[in-house]
């Protein structure tokens, strides 16, 4: 048991010490290696496992979300979807060739900005 943990924070599962923190299970590397199938079963069932090396968290095993990253970010309120759908590629105008060499437009823009 680590410093600061109470008896209720540590569970003995299959003869190994496993700490649980707010719905997450903490497992050492050796225990993970020796009981990988059992721990992966827990992850499949929705459990999150923090992998530790000498008590220091180094990795997190968690179930793969059925949501895409975009949908997950929207659900978490971190981003908002666009108010208007984007135009299909066919509706964007074709680029116009203005006869400049590559990098020439950048040089013109930087010239217009003056010294910094």
Give an overview in words.
The chain is an alpha+beta fold. The chain has a domain at 1-80: YefM-like fold (3-Layer(aba) Sandwich), CATH 3.40.1620.10. Helix content is 28%, strand content 23%. It is built from four helices and five strands, in the order βββααββαα. It has helices at 29-34, 36-44, 69-75, 104-113; strands spanning 10-13, 16-21, 24-28, 48-53, 56-61. A five-stranded mixed sheet has the order 1-2-3-4-5. β2 (16-21) and β3 (24-28) form a beta hairpin. The radius of gyration is 26 Å and the shape is elongated. The termini are far apart.
State the gist of this model.
By secondary structure, this protein is an alpha+beta fold.
What's the helix count? 4
Rg result: 26 Å
Helix-strand pattern: EEEHHEEHH
Mean pLDDT, to the nearest integer, reads 81
CATH class category of the domain at 1-80: Alpha Beta
Judging by the overall fold, what is the CATH architecture of the domain at 1-80?
A: 3-Layer(aba) Sandwich
Task: Assign an overall shape.
Answer: elongated
- Give the beta-strand count: 5
Largest sheet: 5 strands, mixed
* Biggest sheet, spatial arrangement of strands: 1-2-3-4-5
Helical percentage: 25-40%
What is the strand content?
A: 15-25%
Q: Structural class given helices, strands, pairing?
A: alpha+beta
